[in-house]
Design brief:
Order of helices and strands: H
Oligomer: single chain
Strand content: under 5%
Shape: extended
Largest sheet: none
Radius of gyration: 17 Å
Structural class: little secondary structure
Helix content: under 10%
Length: about 60
């Protein structure tokens, strides 16, 4: 018998969240060529609907 954990471990938060610091890549960016296998376009949040193409997104070194 294999024991499978049924709880999600607590996350260690090192720094508090600063709203406005997050970034979003467009879910359907053709350059990423992800096959989502969807039957219809997903319902997106306002933030996700404004996602940038990967080539236009802020890059971090």
């Amino acid at each position: 018998m294999i024991a499978i954990p049924t709880t999600i471990p607590d996350l260690l938060i090192i720094e508090p969240k600063v709203f406005g610091d997050d970034r979003c890549i467009r879910w359907g960016d053709p350059a990423l060529a992800i096959d989502w296998q969807l039957q219809a376009a997903p319902a997106l949040s306002g933030k996700d609907a404004q996602g940038k193409l990967f080539k236009d997104a802020e890059q971090f070194a």
